[in-house]
Amino acid sequence: MTSVDFPPPDVARDTSPSPVRGWLAILAVTLGIFALMTSELLPVGLLTPIGTALDVSEGTTALMVTVPGLVAAVAAPLVTVATARIDRRLVLAVLIGMMGAANLASAFATSFAVVLLARFLIGISVGGFWSLAGAIALRLVPKHHVVRATAVVFGGVETASVLGVPAGTLVGDLGGWRTAFAVVGVLGLISLVCMVVVMPKVAPERTMTFGALPRVFRTHSAVRVGIAMTFLVITGHFTAYTFVRPILQHDGVADGMISVLLLVFGIAGICGNFIAGALITKRLRQTVCGISVLLTAAMAALAVTDHNTFSVAAILIVWGLGYGAVPVTFQTWILNAAPTATEAASSLYVSMFNLSIALGALVGGLAVDTASTVSVLWIGGVLAILVLPIVGAMPRHRVPRPDLPG
């Protein structure tokens, strides 16, 4: 069997750039991730005014969230393979530019069909950009900075949830939903300029074909475990979290406090991201298990206890810490599970992540309609805790090691 302990020589050369320029490039990619995730989630806070303006129901307007999630799941491997011979800087620049243009198109759209087409393009941008950005830290900063740089990049995901979406919703409330989309579009174009200016050329690791995707899944047991735990945790989280607002409303939490509590969740998520970044170098398996326990405990506590503002805040802090640790922890697991095929493994991960978002919302909606709102918490908790036996059963020598080369 071919050794996978060390990356090929061309990767080793690419991972020794100027630290200053490398970190500037990391910040540019982080801005891109922030803009992309804000763009993907922005319609959540603006469904009613968009539906009213374009004369469609809120249920139909919700396709603005569903479409990019499903497209991103397909686009992640497709873009990775289709661009296998192209400079990664150019690919990332084109994807973030397409996102910016699509949002500007949405801002000026006069029909819902045009908006959905723009959201389709945004899905391509999200899937492609994320699948490549997940491995980009390996190529831009010295090896001993990789884990920290990866945490910074995926801190953009959490920052989008705590700052981007609320700020975009506020802009929409004050200046109209078209203004909100235009602002996010301009932010994407700013990220494009930053990447063009500060990011060095990043040659592809190797020519990759569609056969590389099932091959990396088949030949690396740690990749299979990583995909499985991504499915369980992300599906479980979004099964429950999609409906956290009606859950809190049902429990008597004042409408004015819900946005504050979600802000608390987001801040805890940012903290969880960087706490995990400090832990995963030496304790990757333990961090994954800790995420599973925190998410399950938070969902169960929200399901069984009587709530006041302080108890809900405490539960959401636990939940936010657990979920905030997911992006950097799971991405690090995947990258180190297949160190000689990082882009192929990352594209599979991003595909499963986005598919699980859509599946979680679907499962949660069916549960709410057929059972009760609280049922989504139990479903989400059960899915999250199933990670423990899967990860716990792995032999120690097969657990990815971020502190080793690759």
Can you walk me through this structure?
- The longest helix has 30 residues, at 146-175.
- The chain is built from 19 helices and no strands.
- It has helices at residues 9-14, 19-41, 47-54, 58-61, 63-82, 88-108, 112-140, 146-175, 177-198, 212-219, 221-241, 244-250, 255-279, 284-304, 309-324, 326-337, 342-370, 375-385, 387-392.
- The protein is 79% helix and 0% strand.
Write a brief structural summary:
The chain has 406 residues and is mainly alpha-helical.
Characteristics:
406 residues, 2 domains, Growth Hormone, Chain: A, single chain, mainly alpha
The run of helices and strands is HHHHHHHHHHHHHHHHHHH
Strand content: under 5%
N-to-C span: 18 Å
State the low-pLDDT regions, or none: 1-15
Q: How many distinct beta strands?
A: 0
Global geometry: globular
Coarse structural class? mainly alpha
CATH architecture of the largest domain: Up-down Bundle
CATH class of the largest domain: Mainly Alpha
Query: What is the helical fraction, as a range of percent?
Result: over 70%
Whole-number tally of structural domains:
2
CATH topology group of the largest domain:
Growth Hormone, Chain: A
* Average pLDDT for all residues: 84
How would a crystallographer describe the biggest sheet? none
Total helical segments:
19
Topology:
Blueprint: H1 9-14, H2 19-41, H3 47-54, H4 58-61, H5 63-82, H6 88-108, H7 112-140, H8 146-175, H9 177-198, H10 212-219, H11 221-241, H12 244-250, H13 255-279, H14 284-304, H15 309-324, H16 326-337, H17 342-370, H18 375-385, H19 387-392
Helix pairs in contact: 2-6, 2-7, 2-8, 2-9, 5-7, 5-17, 6-7, 6-9, 7-8, 7-17, 8-9, 8-13, 8-16, 10-17, 11-16, 11-17, 11-18, 13-15, 13-16, 14-15, 14-16, 14-18, 16-17
